[in-house]
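As a warm-up, study this chain.
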Amino acid sequence: MKPTTSLLILTVVIAASISACKKDTQDNPNSNSSSALSIKMQGLNKNVSLPVTASGLKSSSATTASIVWNTATMIVSKVSFEAEMKSVLTKEDSIEIEYSWKGPQTINLFDLSATIGSITLPAGTYEKISLKVKSEKMDANGQPLFYLSGNYTNAGGTIIPLVISVTDPISFKTVQIVDAFVSGGTTDFTSTIQLYLDQLLLKVDPALLDNATLTNGTLEISSTSNSQLYQLIMQNLSKDHHCESEHHQHHM
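Now compare it with the structure written out below.
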């Protein structure tokens, strides 16, 4: 996956629900000083050329079949910030920590202005940073956890409405581009989780789409329709390397 990929953002900043794992408060004398980590998600690559190749996880240019997505949503149940935090006292030892934001929130992946929520990070130096995203079925209320709609144009130029509707639980981990950052003082941070939509079509042969079952003229990929394509989409969506995080820093 490319180092910059994003998913959805909500216009309301949600209060973070924080949980810490293996956190030694005596080792952090500046615990009263903290920074806010705002979390965003964005979907990239609305236009997909088929077939999608594994090289660079980008669409192949030698193709006559394509997909254009016009709607992309995801229900986010939880985002966990995972890292190693250096000891304030020794500057060498580190401990594994986790802070979590809990939803759920329905995210429009094409809304570049939205924020999912924020997590408060105590002062410290954080390394080996990643974000883990979960979508739980109990939060769906009968709606898809992940939903894409658009149009598929086959090699013959025929345009067919296309829908991907994921109802199974989703879990994937991102990797921060930055190696480390320091929380505390007058600095806040923003992490943008990016999802490349062309990656979801990796290993999807256009022939599979051409021979798929249509429902009222729509090519629907779901747990109950075109299951082979659905399993390929689920595999691609769940792989950790499909999403990465960018880290942005600003001063209050």
